[in-house]
Design goal:
alpha/beta, 5-stranded parallel β-sheet, Rossmann fold, 3-stranded antiparallel β-sheet, single chain
């Protein structure tokens, strides 16, 4: 089975996808980490993220490994543990830039499909149910209020940066939504046959239970 979970930033898709994969003993693939990895490598080497040819070269040669662990997974990029670095906000903004580039998406989508061919995969992102695996067995589309998603991001990051401004984070969330939904290549959109899950007022456990119940009892 291939399970696709799509949605905007902060909707809870990655956290829930990890838990669902663990419950089902499936492999979890964070496609966002792939785009973040391209941006991370480019930033480390001082490259211009708007240079699509250079970004495509990184994507083509990128060696990325997802290794399950007690906390979810470790992400190795070219043999280096990049798990923490990939969560950096600067890397995240860079990922939004490279994710809008057609050649980069083509290369990474091909890799995502190759991974998914083995089956028993939970894959999250923004175009899994529409582009990467439109034939996936189960599709979910997470939504949540921008204010709530901003609050979640704020709670996640404030210990590392006490000077964070919640209002700025919410505005950044809205800006990312606009970019994701309006990009020409693989925009964020709900697949017609995806189950929409509003996570605004639900706990992670409640969302996970709802997803698992749908997978196990589709009727």
């Amino acid at each position: 089975m291939i399970i696709a979970i799509d949605g905007p930033a902060g909707s809870g898709k990655s956290t829930v996808a990890k838990l669902v994969a663990k419950k089902l003993n499936y492999r979890y693939i964070d496609t966002g980490a792939m785009y973040r990895s391209v941006a991370w490598v480019a930033q480390k080497n001082g490259l211009n993220l708007a240079d699509e040819i250079a970004m495509a070269k990184i994507a083509e040669n990128l060696k990325i490994e997802f290794i399950p662990n007690a906390n979810g997974q470790t992400v190795l990029v070219d043999g280096e543990n990049a798990t923490t670095d990939l969560k950096n906000e600067v890397v995240g903004k860079g990922a939004a830039t490279v994710a809008a580039q057609e050649s980069v998406r083509e290369l990474l989508v091909a890799r995502q499909r190759q991974i998914g061919e083995t089956g028993n995969v939970v894959m999250d992102g923004r175009d899994i149910g529409t582009v990467v695996f439109p034939q996936s067995d189960k599709k979910f589309f997470f939504v949540a209020d921008a204010e709530e998603r901003g609050r979640r991001r704020y709670e996640e990051l404030k210990s590392k940066n006490p000077e964070l401004d919640l209002k700025i984070i919410i505005e950044e969330i809205r800006q990312r939504d606009y970019e994701d939904c309006n990009r020409k290549i693989s925009p964020l959109v709900k697949a017609e046959d995806a189950l929409e899950v509003d996570t605004t007022r639900l706990s992670i456990e409640e969302v996970t239970d709802q997803v698992l119940k749908n997978i196990n009892n589709p009727t």
